[in-house]
Design a protein that fits this description.
Elements (H helix, E strand, L loop, with lengths): L9 E10 L13 E7 L5 E8 L6 E4 L3 E4 L4 E9 L3 E10 L2 H4 L7 E7 L6 E12 L8 H17 L7 H19 L2 H16 L8 H19 L2 H17 L7 H19 L2 H16 L8 H19 L2 H16 L8 H19 L2 H17 L7 H19 L2 H16 L8 H19 L2 H17 L7 H19 L2 H17 L7 H19 L2 H17 L7 H19 L2 H16 L8 H19 L2 H16 L8 H19 L2 H16 L6 H21 L2 H15 L6 H17 L5 H15 L6 H11 L2 H11 L3 H11 L2 H9 L4 H6 L1 H16 L14 H23 L13 H4 L8 E6 L4 E6 L7 E4 L5 H17 L16 H23 L11 E6 L28 E4 L20 E5 L11 H12 L4 E5 L5 H10 L2 E5 L1 E3 L9 E4 L2 E4 H6 L7 E5 L17 H8 L3 E5 L8 H12 L11 H13 L6 H4 L2 E5 L1
Parallel strand pairs: 10-13, 13-14, 15-16, 15-17, 17-21, 21-22
Antiparallel strand pairs: 1-4, 1-5, 1-9, 2-3, 2-6, 3-4, 6-7, 7-8, 8-9, 10-11, 11-12, 18-19, 19-20, 22-23
Helix pairs in contact: 2-3, 3-4, 4-5, 5-6, 5-7, 6-7, 7-8, 7-9, 8-9, 9-10, 9-11, 10-11, 11-12, 11-13, 12-13, 13-14, 13-15, 14-15, 15-16, 15-17, 16-17, 17-18, 17-19, 18-19, 19-20, 19-21, 20-21, 21-22, 21-23, 22-23, 23-24, 23-25, 24-25, 25-26, 25-27, 26-27, 27-28, 27-29, 28-29, 29-30, ...
Length: 1280
């Protein structure tokens, strides 16, 4: 042991003797007995009798060794005699200190005790028998160190700063405090230790022989605090102190190597925090210099070799240079070989050698390295005595090696042993110990690994608890905090993959984002943190479909790739994950460059990964998936052949009991099936069924992947059934597909895909489960477009669903289940509309039974209603968009659970469920309601009529889905060529031939749709007073003017719909039902917002329109907002108080994001999403004298995503709108006639009469000679 004046507090066990060669017995003055008395600075005293050594006259020995701290200061030899009582005489004494009493070579040390009262000096000889840190001895009791610290503090307080002993006292106090910190972990001790060391240094002048020691001890304590708290100032200060010490020592001095070694350690610590390459390079330079200047045989040579090896290993971890890890192993091996087994540092050096072997295994996958790592770690644990402070760390490293071997070979004994070792390490480590978070983090990784293998939920729950505990025990600013956060995020992500709880994926993203934010850009862990964040975002995108998530995932993965050196062992993983994100975006958006880039990244990952590497099968599987996806889009046979080859290689490299094997088998099966579909090879379909069956068999029923695997198996069986018409294949396919579609844990999108396949299979096989399959699909659709998603994401999901709702309705009609067909059309369309209305549904009946439950549900519904859209400009929240979205999903989940709780109550089973036919039939009391279903299978009308007890089915054999789509395209072309864009003065040169095209479309609608319906419902052309009729249309019919269908080329007055009925549209039948919360009629209050100064083109005739409205309203309560007064804020405010609304302005339909469709007001747009956010229970009627207010979105034909629909959702039950642009000169005429009809006789306006008023307004316009058909056609009525 090196024994210097300034060192950590240590206890020495000393063998002591004294020599009195010049004495004779009479010189003892009759005091024949000698006692050695040692008085400590803390006031304690130790005494030991001295016995004369028979073989050596004049030499006296203690009869036992003494345990003394290095801060012992006063030694005395006392003689005594026992003649009628004990008498003592002090013979010699001296102030001594630990370094005076020990010799680092192990040879005896000699000091002179000063004689008293003419007694000669006495030679005191000491030899170190043992030296131990105070945390282990004496007795391991904390009171020992507490007492010592207390005494040192008192003595330091009493000694003046200018006393020569003051620096030594402060040093001793700092060392004792640092030792107690390492024992108990109190930060107060550590801070105080640094304070004492700084004070000791400040009191010591330059040039003092102890200055170097003081610099070193201060650096050591600062480095210790940095390792605990991660404060960069501490490690920077430590490096400054050590560099100063190095600079003070001339080259060639033997002490120089010690300081070079310490400086290298501090540089290494800073590198581990910041990842600055200069630090690790300089650390290696310092350590190499320390080794080079240390002679062979020097006792510090092994230690310096060990530290050099650690520096090499750290640079390898950053840069992946093979030479570095080889040098690390050689340095560590040399350190181990130079260290005898009995040496206390042998376990530490074995442990480091094991870590280096493990690092090389991680890069190259050589099992010999892994076995060597385990061998070294086991030896390190074996040689470390119980109670040693490093025992937990060495157990943890052994466990990590065992975990790596499990991940490579799959032996469960290794995994269980790893968890056991980690648990022992944790049990041996106090919560205050700085190593505790590391132990918790490590066992968390092992537990989640076992969960991935065995699926025991307690393992993943426990893993999350351990990771969370590691985070909680780690202070902010600590360099390890980002790593612990990232691992916690990984555990949450894994649990989400299994259980599908959205809170887990949101929390995972939050933790990963925190880890990224806390990690400097140049830190070595930054790529890993970015990669984990990207993977979490990708996972959420796959579940929820938010395009923002996939774009962010790609950005994070690309950043991870860019920051990872080409030769780094994590480069293939980063490339693989980037490839995954690009391919998934290609599937969603179809950009070919995403597919090409994704495949290129996957190929690069495979090429960079050596055979035998545990990640290779997964990389191969992913490149196979990418090639398959591109083949399905582009049809290149070379892609599908390569995909099968990659998938087969992945399967061949994966053990039978590996957790990835089911997915890899299924991927291979899907590729074979795809090639069979293209080429018809019988071997391919047989092999596809085989692989998918094996994948399903290997997966537990409650695993979320089981749903997709069963769907794939069912799909392959369906194809074999179609090929061979073997009925057992059909039965098996239905069984697997129905299980997948009904899975309680499968993702809704996968369940819906399975339901579609089930429907197709049951249809071609004439299976009795066909209606069940349809019912299942209808039930899953609202889950795909879940309330917890942003509204744009819900719309995107619904746009991808396509016409499945119309198809299942067509199937029900074919099976003579017209009631079911009508209910399904009501339930499966206008999903978002229904969700919003349900949030505003009163719960009076529930309040009568469970008032607290009702209030809770209302509170949640209101919160969701307020934040129902992608962003809320009025929100004053300081939370990020991600935090807002997460909070919204949490509320939606809580509300879903609450609704299910309500449904469990007696008589509330149908609470907030879609209305049944009996309730829907009430909508027809004022006139028939006709629902037209357009499917590629067939087209039909289903009508509800007052006095008719059943649904009226009207087949439409001449109406074809494809033809309806063609009519929509033709009308769109006509509108474009006719200059129908926005409300303005029409250009006289605009083409006027559009009327003829419109007549053809209207005539075809009459022949194939309207006339058969009117005939079936026994409508007759009538006088001025016509009956009402409501149309609920589906698919492309939503964009065609059914309200004007008729034959216009002849004089036949009975060939037009307007000769039979007053037509209104309704998004759903439910929209026409009486609301249970209909408020008592208030006096009508009108709001007119006219020609705002929006920056768009001037609309001159709005002035006239305002004049007409004022004239018709006369003395009624009327608020007018004109030009600059018609701001968005003012209009929205007045809408709260006014129940009648008239808007004359520009309107626009946003084709890219329909929720951004808007009315142009002064200073801004009143968007569709802002209108929906309004909840206006007193609203009655809105006249939208603007363009495109009921145009809608072609991809969301069954969702009413237009301004008129938004007004209806806001509370306006009766709305006049426009299907396309209107002519400025005609708008005032329509408005004037409309209000003249509605307000005749001065009576209170009735919104139920708005449709009739519009009918006659348009009729009058239609009868004007010079008015084109395109000018009167766009006016429509929506609602009651």
């Amino acid at each position: 042991m090196s024994c210097r004046w300034m060192h950590l507090l240590t206890f020495f066990r000393l063998g002591i003797s004294v020599e009195l060669p010049a004495w004779d017995d009479h010189r003892l003055d009759g005091f024949p007995h000698l006692v050695l008395e040692v008085k400590l600075n803390n006031g304690f005293a130790h005494k030991a009798k001295l016995q004369p050594r028979e073989s050596s006259p004049g030499v006296w020995d203690t009869n036992e060794s003494l345990m003394l701290p290095e801060l012992a200061s006063h030694f005395a030899i006392t003689g005594f005699r026992e003649l009628g009582g004990a008498e003592h005489r002090l013979l010699a004494s001296k102030e001594l200190f630990g370094p005076d009493l020990c010799n680092q070579t192990g040879e005896p040390a000699e000091v002179l005790l000063d004689g008293h009262e003419n007694h000669p000096n006495i030679v005191l000889k000491t030899k170190v028998v043992a030296a131990n840190a105070i945390r282990q001895t004496p007795g391991g009791e904390p009171n020992d160190i507490n007492n010592i610290i207390a005494q040192l503090q008192e003595r330091a307080r009493l000694v003046a700063d200018d006393h020569p002993d003051k620096p030594r006292l402060l040093y001793n106090l700092g060392g004792a405090l640092l030792t107690r910190f390492k024992r108990l972990g109190s930060l107060e001790d550590l801070n105080s230790a640094i304070q004492q060391h700084k004070a000791a240094l400040n009191l010591t002048p330059d040039g003092h022989p102890h200055k170097l020691g003081l610099l070193g001890n201060l650096a050591n304590s600062l480095r210790t605090r940095f390792q605990r708290l991660g404060n960069l100032d501490d490690i920077n200060d430590a490096i400054i102190q050590e560099q100063a010490a190095v600079d003070l020592i001339p080259d060639g001095q033997p002490d120089k190597a010690t300081w070079l070694n310490n400086l290298g350690n501090s540089l290494l610590s800073r590198f581990e925090r910041l990842g600055i390459l200069d630090d690790i390079d300089n650390s290696i330079i310092k350590h190499q210099a320390a080794v080079n200047t240390t002679t062979d045989g020097h006792p510090d040579k092994p230690r310096r070799l060990n530290n050099l090896g650690s520096a090499f290993r750290n640079r390898f971890n950053r840069l992946g240079n093979l030479d570095d890890i080889n040098n690390a192993i050689e340095s560590h091996r040399a350190a181990v070989n130079l260290t005898p087994d009995s040496h206390p540092n042998k376990p530490k050096r074995l442990n480091n050698l094991g870590n280096s072997f493990l690092g090389r295994f991680g890069r190259f996958g050589d099992l010999d390295d892994l076995d060597n790592a385990i061998l070294q770690h086991k030896a390190a644990v074996y040689l470390t005595p119980d109670g040693h402070p490093d025992k937990p760390k060495r157990l943890s490293n052994l466990a990590t090696s065992l975990l790596n071997r499990f991940q490579r070979l799959g032996n469960l004994d290794d995994l269980d042993d790893a968890i056991t070792q980690h648990q022992v390490a944790i049990d041996l480590t106090t919560d205050l110990h700085p190593e505790k978070p590391i132990q918790l983090n490590n066992i968390g990784i092992a537990l989640r690994t076992r969960f991935e293998r065995l699926g025991n939920y307690s393992d993943v729950d426990n893993a999350i608890q351990q990771h969370q505990a590691a985070v909680n025990l780690t202070p902010n600013g600590h360099p390890a905090k980002p790593n612990w956060l990232s691992n916690l995020g990984n555990a949450l992500l894994i649990r989400f993959d299994r259980l599908g709880n959205l809170d887990d994926i949101d929390n995972a993203i939050s933790k990963h984002q925190d880890a990224v934010n806390l990690t400097p850009d140049d830190h070595r862990d930054k790529p890993s943190c970015l990669n984990n964040l990207g993977s979490s975002l990708l996972t959420r995108f796959e579940r929820l479909g938010n395009l923002d998530d996939i774009d962010k995932a790609i950005m994070q993965h690309q950043a991870a790739v860019d920051l990872t050196p080409d030769n780094h062992p994590d480069k293939p993983k980063a490339l693989n994950n980037l490839g995954n994100s690009l391919i998934i975006r290609f599937e969603r958006l179809g950009k070919s460059e995403d597919a090409d880039n994704g495949i290129a990244r996957h190929q690069e990952a495979v090429d960079r990964t050596p055979d035998g590497h545990p990640g290779k099968p997964r990389w191969l599987g992913n490149i196979g998936n990418s090639l398959l996806i591109r083949f399905e889009r582009l049809g290149n046979l070379d892609d599908i052949d390569k995909a099968i080859m990659q998938h087969q290689a992945a399967v061949d490299l994966t053990p039978d009991d590996h957790s990835d094997r089911p997915s890899l088998l299924s991927n291979l099966g899907n590729s074979l099936l795809t090639r069979f579909e293209r080429l018809g090879n019988i071997d391919d379909i047989a092999n596809a069924v085989k692989q998918n069956q094996a994948a399903a068999d290997l997966t537990p029923d409650d695993h979320p992947l089981k749903c997709g695997l069963l769907s794939n198996l069912g799909n392959s069986l369906v194809h074999r059934f179609r090929k061979f018409n073997h009925s057992p294949d059909a039965e098996a396919a239905v069984a697997h597909l129905s299980a997948a579609a009904s899975s309680p844990v499968g993702p809704p999108s996968v369940r819906l895909t399975a339901a579609k396949k089930w429907i197709g299979t049951a249809s071609i096989a004439n299976h009795t489960s066909l209606l069940d399959a349809c019912e299942c699909a209808i039930t899953v659709i609202p889950l795909v477009a879940w309330l917890g998603l942003p509204i744009t994401d819900r719309h995107q999901q619904l746009a991808q669903i396509g016409g499945i709702v119309r198809d299942v309705a067509a199937i029900a009609i074919s099976l003579d289940q017209r009631d079911k067909a009508l209910e399904w059309l009501e339930q499966g369309r206008f999903i978002v509309w229904t969700q919003i209305l349900q949030l505003r549904t009163p719960v009076d009946q529930l309040r009568d039974v469970e008032p607290d439950l009702a209030d809770h549900l209302l509170r949640l519904s209101r919160l969701l209603d307020q934040g129902i859209h992608d962003s809320n400009p009025q929100s004053e929240s300081k939370r990020s968009p991600e935090q807002e979205a997460r909070q919204y999903r949490t509320l939606a989940t809580e509300r879903d659970e609450l609704v299910e709780k309500v449904r469990s109550l007696p008589n509330f089973n149908d609470f907030l469920r879609p209305s049944k036919l009996q309730r829907l039939a009430e909508a027809a009391k004022s006139g028939p309601v006709v629902v037209v279903n357009v499917s590629e299978m067939r087209c039909d009308a289903l009508a509800l009529a007052s006095g008719v007890d059943e649904v009226v089915h009207i087949p439409l054999p001449k109406l074809m889905s494809r033809r309806v789509t063609q009519l929509q395209v033709e009308l769109k072309s006509i509108l474009k060529s006719s200059g129908v864009r926005q409300r303005a003065v029409r250009d006289e040169d605009v083409e006027v031939g559009g009327d003829e095209g419109c007549k053809r479309i209207l005539g075809e609608l009459w022949d194939h749709l309207v006339n058969p319906v009117l005939h079936s419902l026994k409508f007759k052309p009538g006088p001025d007073t016509l009956p009402r009729m409501w149309w609920c249309v589906t698919g492309p019919l939503a964009f065609l003017p059914i309200h004007a269908a008729g034959v216009y080329d002849t004089g036949d007055s009975s060939g037009k719909i307007q000769d039979y009925t007053v037509v209104s549209y309704a998004p759903t039948i439910s929209a026409l039902l009486e609301r249970s919360d209909t408020p008592v009629h208030r006096p009508s209050r009108h709001l007119s917002a006219i020609e705002p100064s929006s920056g768009a083109s001037y609309i001159p005739n709005t002035e006239k329109e305002l004049e007409y409205i004022r004239l018709r309203l006369q003395n009624r309560d009327h608020v007018v907002l004109h030009k600059v007064d018609a701001t968005k804020e003012r209009v929205m405010k007045e809408m709260q108080d006014c129940n009648w609304l008239h808007l004359a302005c520009h309107g626009t339909q946003n084709a890219i994001n329909p929720t951004k469709s808007a009315l142009l007001l002064h200073g801004g747009k009143l968007t569709l999403e802002e209108i929906i956010r309004l909840n206006l229970p007193h609203a009655e009627f809105a006249f939208l004298s603007a363009c495109q207010t009921m145009m809608g979105d072609e991809n969301l034909s069954d969702e009413a995503v237009h301004i008129a629909g938004a007004m209806s959702l806001a509370g306006y039950r009766s709305v006049v709108a426009t299907m396309w642009s209107i002519e400025d000169a005609l708008a005032p005429k329509v408005a004037d006639e409309f209000y003249a009809r509605l307000l005749k006789d001065g009576e209170r306006p009735d919104n139920r009469k708005a449709a009739e008023a519009l009918y006659f307004s348009v009729k009058k316009l239609r009868e004007e000679k010079d008015v084109r058909m395109l000018s009167w056609l766009p006016f429509v009525h929506l609602g009651i």
